[in-house]
Fold each of these.
Amino acid sequence: MAGSPNSNLRGFNHAVQTLLKQPSQFLPHLTIPTFTHLPEDLGPHLVGAAGKGPAGTPQLTSPEKPRTPRIPKICALVLDKDNTLCPPKTTTFPPQILTKLAELRNSPTSPFYHATNPHSILIVSNRAGSHPNFDGEVRELEDQLAHLRIPVFRLPADTEKKPFCGDEVVQWFRERKVIQSPNEIAVVGDRLGTDVLMAGMMGSWSVWCKEGVFEPGEEGKPERNILEKMEVWIEKYLREKRGFTAPAPKGWEE
């Protein structure tokens, strides 16, 4: 975790290179307005991407018959903090976000029910948990979520921020016996260049919260910054103009 607490220049460079070489990796498997719209049973909502190749073209088992896609089994959630769970650079959870987290943790039908899957939700932020400067934020977040048993990921020493810490996140879930494969994880966040790219590097599924933490038109919703505007434009261009779709996680078709 050495270096500037806010620097992620390598992440920006990686996003640019990916956009040039593998643009479909920029696309999420599922797009929702905000985290409050996240389906409890995610698998069926991701299945549209499960039969797609790297360029978004259907994979066929024979010349005549398309492959029937499997339904992903999602056992773990990786949640971004800034502009996904809280307004940027704050530890303030809007009431509707806390309600949604409580529903996911307290519903016996939820795959993330605390009694049967206690380690299934992890906050992974490029702020809280990424540098000692933000240790206060970690304590504030975990104090508020203690009743839901949702921790913040501490970036190990000499590990880079999202999108490069995916292997460490997968290992965190493996050590707690939450998953057997990375394709049982869904990464949920507001940024294509970090959250969605990390999901692809992990071999996991991605969910893009397109509007961030605020609903469209909600009072207090800030204007998108330049990078956020660019990502929205890029996603629309790749999907509508180029016809790309998100590739299934690596290994999913094997």
Amino acid sequence: MKAIIGLGNPGREYEKTRHNIGFMVLDEIVSQWGDGKYTSKFQGAFAEARLGSDKVLLLKPQTYMNLSGQAVGALVNFYKIDLQDLLVIYDDLDLDLGRLRLRSRGSSGGHNGIKSIISQLGSDSFPRLKMGIGRPPAGRSAASYVLESFATADADSLEKMIDEACKATALWVAEGTTAAMNQFNGKS
């Protein structure tokens, strides 16, 4: 059994923001692989889907970004999920818009959602899919930038990146982290 977590913030005011790219990808996955519906479970929006013969658990924590670990920890503990079978999808300021990077483990890189998950799980040994959102322009803080909506001019790049992330996630489910890294890292 695999679990895929998309990070973001709940609420309409955050729906289309850069920080919610994980939610956007998960919504597309739930639409493609499942029935498109979530239930409220594990302090989040929860769904189950099948990809081939694999059962996949999907979760969008509703705890706000900085407390994402609470929801992820609840899911992992309930299903006894091996951390190598957990994929977390989230925004990354250090990657240009449209770029993806899969990692099998690593530090939080300053991302508070990942920091919360590492703290809750007691480990940084879980795969993650970083979604490039680019750095804020000079003079703008990272905190305000991630809570802004994507620019209209970025719509095509955003759509392509979400599509590529869905493909990378499907490959991760089917063949594992290394196969997905080899095919998708560095692609834009």
Amino acid sequence: MIVCSCNALSHRDIEIAIHNGASRPAEIYSARKCKAKCGNCVPGIVCLLRSALQKTQAEQAQLNAA
């Protein structure tokens, strides 16, 4: 799914950037060598970023509990 039409940034691009250590929207754009243009995608990127970080934290908690 395309999240940012200005930069043709897909949800997969965002997931890859997060997997590679991005933790802020600017880092996600930087990973694709682009930047926000109109800004309509920022809320979607923030939502995907939060979901991914929460998932990572939950996985870490499970590993620590085991």
